[in-house]
Amino acid sequence: MHVPEEIRAEAAGLIDHHALGLWKPHDADRRIAVALFRFLETGLPLTGEQVRSVLAHAEPADGASERLLKLLRMTAGLLDDAPAADSPTGRDAVDHVCLLLDALALSRPAEQ
User: Among the residues of 1-112, which ranges form H helices?
Assistant: First the structure.
C-alpha cells in the first residue's frame, strides 16, 4: 500500500497550488484547517478521531474542496494505523498535511 506516499504527494500538490495561486481555498476549507490547526496547537499529535470529528461537520455543499476532504479522510485512516503513521514515510505524509493546514489556517479568507 502506498497511502503515505499518496497523502504526501497530494498534500505537496495542494501546498504548491495554493502558493502559486492556482487553488483558491474556499472559506469552508479555511474553517476545516483552523479547526484542525487548533488541535495541532495543543502540541499533541493529530489523531484520526480528531480529523473525522472535524470532517463530520464539513460537507462539499458548504463549499469545502472535495480534494481537501479526500486528503483528510485518507490522513485519518493513516493516523488510525499506528505502525504506518509512525514510519518515516507516514510521519513525512502527516507533516505535509500539517504544513498544508498551517498554510490554509493562516491564509486570508477568500474574497466574496
Answer: 3-19, 27-40, 48-56, 66-80, 82-86, 88-105
What is the SS3 assignment for 93? helix
Range in 11-15, 86-90, 102-106 the model is least confident about: 102-106
Average of per-residue pLDDT across 64-82: 94
- Of 6, 18, 3, 4, which Cα lies nearest the Cα of 105? 18
Is residue 26 classed exposed, middle or buried when 0-12, 13-18 and 19+ CB atoms within 10 A define those classes? middle
Query: Are the C-beta atoms of 79 and 46 separated by less than 8 Å?
Result: yes
Supply the DSSP symbol for 22: S
Q: Where are the domains of the chain?
A: 3-105
What band does 58 get if pLDDT is binned at 50, 70 and 90?
confident
What residues have CB less than 8 Å from 96, skipping those under 6 apart?
A: 7, 8, 11, 12, 15
To the question of pTM greater than 0.70 for the whole model, the response is yes
